[in-house]
Amino acid sequence: MAKRQDTKKFFENLSGAGKSIGVLTSGGDAQGMNAAVRAVVRMGIYVGAKVYFVHEGYQGMVDGGDNIEEASWESVSSMLQVGGTVIGSARCKEFRSHEGRLKAAHHLVQRDITNLCVIGGDGSLTGANLFREEWSGLLEELVQQGLIDEKAAQNNSELHIVGMVGSIDNDFCGTDMTIGTDSALHRIIEVVDAIMTTAQSHQRTFVLEVMGRHCGYLALVSALACGADWVLIPEMPPEDGWEEQMCQKLSENRADKKRLNIIIVAEGAIDSHNKPITTDHIKELVVSCLGFDTRVTILGHVQRGGTPSAFDRILASRMGVEAVLALLEASASTPACVVSLCGNQAVRLPLMECVQMTQDVQKAMDEKNFEEAVRLRGRSFENNLNTYKLLSYRKADSELPNSSFNVAVLNVGAPAAGMNAAVRSAVRVGITEGHKMFAVNDGFEGFYKGQVLELRHMIIVITCDRIKQSASGTKRRVFIIETMGGYCGYLASVGGLAAGADAVYIYEEPFDIRDLQSNVEHLTEKMKTGIQRGLVLRNENSNENFTTDFIYQLYSEEGKGVFDCRKNVLGHMQQGGAPSPFDRNFGTKIAAKAIQWISRKLKESYKEGKVFANTEDTACLLGMRRRAMVFQPVVQLKDQTDFVHRIPKEQWWLKLRPLMKILAKYKTSYDVSDSGQLEHVTRVRPKKVD
Fold this sequence. Notes:
One of its GO terms (biological process) is fructose 1,6-bisphosphate metabolic process. By secondary structure, the chain is α/β, with parallel strands linked by helices.
């Protein structure tokens, strides 16, 4: 990928004055699309552009009229937490014809719209690129037919396209995640968790079909997250004889006193001969071979429904802002691009490079070149698949490598959702590596007391939504919410971005009474318009004097006659509940990677019957840094840590705070140093990083 410049760049120099942006959603709906639409509208208006809704996707563009409507700041209020797409989506056969695209061009020129944000799948984005390529020819035809004049053609001579991928299947190459995927995983895991209770009660086997006609991402990641016994996906057809292997594994698990079996099947699952594998076939197989009580559940469109997850809201909001920046910087020579996620960064990639690679995946599967298909899916898919293989293949004791090492796993500090998934993964991988695995109860205190046992086999946004929804039937109400986090404002800031907060107070960004007064006045002016709900978040240690009670009383007093206030201290409920699919999946993968690193270090440090772990690279912290998982020696963290407040000296997520302020209608400065360069899709297999 292209190297980025280190010099800081701010978007204040980019003006949208005189420009018009159209935003549409096309194809299948996905949770988070509304967050993307909201971000495009507000960012577009913020920079001085006109923004238009194109209702019902390309069909609305072809039909014109009221389907193309100018958007206002208030028109996207209260849509952040709504699933689906409020501006509508439709599959349009007419747009596939030249005549249909000619009508669409006419309707856009009538409103001087020469910038399009298209949110959809690869088909929708391919159609947008074709539209752009034909644009000058379409304008010539419109002039010849007398529908527009030469001046209108000159004023609208260039059409710029930026895409965002909205697809619950995560089937688009070039991005780690598409809008809607994480929310769909939430729906699947909710169902799996519910099924597990009834399955355990009756010792049943459940076969679940999830969406994914051409891509097995949902099936693969949900299998990782819930510890499924077997998974079937299009990219990894089972070898001949898989039926016996699956039944043997189910039987072994039941013999180990496991009271339930879960089999997850992608709707596009096939065998090695490209023959479809159906849930009914699997049920018949399990019943006839094992006699297990087996039920089939087909989740269907429930996976598309419901409230978008925090991840999808943040992803879509970041992509929407980046899309507007890309349109402002576009020129006649700039190819249509798609905004993608790489690690924790938003990047721009040429749209047709990504589309071509997505089509190459299907071509590879049609040719039964499944290894190539997995590689083309990208590093995220490949890592998930490798981790699943590592955890799912259980070797007999005689097959295990001979290791003389004992490895212990312990949890330290406050509890966090996803810890159990990490422990499970660490133990399984450790056993596969041949180590004796031990669990230490009660952290370091348990370690000191000898509470060691050998093991052989082994979020805020929802609350904010509920609080905001409780105010939906009232007139103008503001909620003040206190979050946890110690001196770290990550939870408050990212939760505020995901929930559409009007203000977020954190320790890392000092504030005084003038800031508070300015925020109150800003919110009061907003509430005098059509906006009826406000949300203010405060990190628990943001300021010792400006407490949650103080802020509540200030807003209550200054908002008299305009809005009333309520407050809520979330407390330890933020540490409770079931872990999200992201936490389960991340915990599983990071623990597997950690144990493999430990195994390698043990072998490197083993000399004459002893382990010499006396170099700084033998005690590391594993975590995500920009685009990669990095092992960093703990010694090096000393200079990067504020030990008094127990936070890093530099917080990467602080760059997201201006984005939150912009979407809340504050004038602010936004560092776009990481934006602006069009990168290219990497086809060469990257070097393996331990």
